[in-house]
Amino acid sequence: MRITVHRKAHFNAAHRLYRKDWDDDRNFEVFGKCSNPHYHGHNYELIVSVTGEPNLETGFVMDLKILKELIYDEVEEAFDHKNLNVEVPEFKELIPTAENIAVVIWNKLRTKIQEDHDLEVTLYETPRNFVSYKGE
Amino acid sequence: MRITVHRKAHFNAAHRLYRKDWDDDRNFEVFGKCSNPHYHGHNYELIVSVTGEPNLETGFVMDLKILKELIYDEVEEAFDHKNLNVEVPEFKELIPTAENIAVVIWNKLRTKIQEDHDLEVTLYETPRNFVSYKGE
Amino acid sequence: MRITVHRKAHFNAAHRLYRKDWDDDRNFEVFGKCSNPHYHGHNYELIVSVTGEPNLETGFVMDLKILKELIYDEVEEAFDHKNLNVEVPEFKELIPTAENIAVVIWNKLRTKIQEDHDLEVTLYETPRNFVSYKGE
Amino acid sequence: MRITVHRKAHFNAAHRLYRKDWDDDRNFEVFGKCSNPHYHGHNYELIVSVTGEPNLETGFVMDLKILKELIYDEVEEAFDHKNLNVEVPEFKELIPTAENIAVVIWNKLRTKIQEDHDLEVTLYETPRNFVSYKGE
Amino acid sequence: MRITVHRKAHFNAAHRLYRKDWDDDRNFEVFGKCSNPHYHGHNYELIVSVTGEPNLETGFVMDLKILKELIYDEVEEAFDHKNLNVEVPEFKELIPTAENIAVVIWNKLRTKIQEDHDLEVTLYETPRNFVSYKGE
Amino acid sequence: MRITVHRKAHFNAAHRLYRKDWDDDRNFEVFGKCSNPHYHGHNYELIVSVTGEPNLETGFVMDLKILKELIYDEVEEAFDHKNLNVEVPEFKELIPTAENIAVVIWNKLRTKIQEDHDLEVTLYETPRNFVSYKGE
């Protein structure tokens, strides 16, 4: 019997989509307003989903208090109220698109989640634009 | 051609997470505030998802009026404004974690849904904590 | 120039609507399923609204970090994961209807908010039932 | 590495569920209030999900600005503020149930989305009734 | 002591904005796509707010079960799954704009609500367009 | 007869809360993480509310298509995907707190709205922190 538990969290951050090896015009052509050199920002909403067998003693797949703390330590502490391009090492050479942020979060959490549990990450950049990644 | 239809419902209930064979200290250690002997409660939001071939005559996978009534009879009548630990027989010997409530709901509905239809249940205990189960 | 700042919080609690001086039948007649002697519960959503002049130096009517902590200390610590009837002194002799819970919260916060600021409290018992109170 | 990007859109439309080859009584028996000959309507919410490999240069699975425009051209222009039964050719001989609307949208978008990308469509007819289809 | 209780409800309806004494061109010029002669529709969300003194015995301003039934009888029964222009007598000579629908609802409910209670109606035509009316 | 019409819009922006005449330590003491020199950002949600008499011919207080365009021209064009501190002239000498942003938006819209109409602006910085201003 496999069940999925989901925990929702959020963080606010600034970012900019651009490639250093392209000039401003090409960046604007590809990334539009998102390439603004002065940055813009979002309230990111994050859903972390963990799938596995419930523990027989507790009825928990994973204690959601522990998942909440893990998300706090790995994601909120690292990203909240930050400029993703400037202050978050993972995005020094990686464009902080929603896709890439989701993959970075998945990679950070994957090492901390029990190995036989599946992991999926859904990241809302806005209420209308969101991405999901499950390590496939 | 397989399509999934989803119906959202809700119920309000009190519960407590604890094991009778553990003392209050151990229960508090594992279940935290959720082990409060005086109970606490939630507005549970439920999404029931049924997947199958649409009927050629009606265009319906399953008439959502019938699914709505089924959820009312099997879940809302049984759980709404109830104390899950005290008044719902399924939780006499089973801890009413979100995981276990989702499995109980899935089992109740499974027998009433057409056999060649797949069934998934998603249960929100709070807007930030939720679980899903599809009988695998 | 008067501006209103709003802060949203939440807590989960069990309650029961009944009068000790009425028998179970009369309680059921008036309060319906909400009078269930075994309790039921809700995810209460709370919006606290404070109106006043913004501070000239900071641009803040009231620092929302301080309002967040105040709500935590006065409301969440006192009500979250509690049985309102049994564990919260204010409801020993007062029926914990949404109306009365809102008034109790307003009274607790009023003494901690700057005197020349107006205060309003909105409390959602469910997404469809809610109340508001501004001390008038 | 496969990631899913999701874009949310909406449109308002009138519709009626009925079969021309059934009389009003049989239509009412099967489709209830939804068979009202004078039509009723909905604010449809649509989520389009595209799964594929992110582009190495841009970090995008699919540019969401392009997906937004595609949904505008294929779905909003065709369905918004329309009477689905009367004005949308696809429903001349097809009952505009949520299931069928989702399939029609999926078919329209499928030809415009890169072939090696997977496509899923979720359509909310109301906040409580919704369907999803992924072309299987 | 005056408290406001709010109850949320919803109904789905078709409508069209136009004046019989204007031709189609002028109607389109003023009402745009909303003047479509074939109708379009919405999921209307309604919030009814009643302000008054709580009853000393029950702690209720107004029993929300009674308010729920009143909204059902006066609004949902009359408007849900209807074509407002064709089937609802109040809109035979009145354009069913959100403003006018809100006033019609307010007038219908005003006669059924205790006289010393204030009444306000908020009507969402879409999540982005809504109106409120309090009889002033 | 006075009715309020509301229109919801949104924009994404970066900002930083700080006073140039304070050093970083004092800024951090007062504004906390919001003073981050590298900026952070938000998805701002905006509700603009206009109160007045409905037009006798159209049933509109104010055509919501015109209000939508006005918000687009005055707010979205000016703020969306911008760094409020660096790129928006109104915040050159004014801290972009939610309170101040709301007042700036109100002032911009006030000159464009019919004089005998009342105006209120509600601005969500996050789903839990928001402000409202009506020019009093």
UniProtKB/TrEMBL annotation, chains A, B, C, D, E, F:
Pathway listed: Purine metabolism; 7-cyano-7-deazaguanine biosynthesis
The keyword Metal-binding is assigned to this record? yes
Report keywords, A-Z.
Lyase, Metal-binding, Queuosine biosynthesis, Zinc
Enzyme class, first EC level, given as a word: lyase
UniProt cofactor note: Binds 1 zinc ion per subunit.
- Look up the record and name the cofactor or cofactors this protein needs: Zn(2+)
Kindly name one Pfam family recorded for this protein: PTPS
Q: Which EC numbers characterise this protein's activity in its record?
A: 4.-.-.-
Active-site residue list? C34, H81, E125
Q: Any one Gene Ontology biological process term?
A: tRNA queuosine(34) biosynthetic process
What catalytic activity is recorded? 7,8-dihydroneopterin 3'-triphosphate + H2O = 6-carboxy-5,6,7,8-tetrahydropterin + triphosphate + acetaldehyde + 2 H(+)
Q: What does the entry list as the binding residues for Zn(2+)?
A: H15, H40, H42
As one GO molecular function, the record gives:
6-carboxytetrahydropterin synthase activity
- Matches recorded under InterPro entries: 6-PTP_synth/QueD, 6-PTP_synth/QueD_sf
**Family that this chain belongs to:** Belongs to the PTPS family. QueD subfamily.
Q: Provide the protein name.
A: 6-carboxy-5,6,7,8-tetrahydropterin synthase
Species per Swiss-Prot/TrEMBL record? Christiangramia echinicola
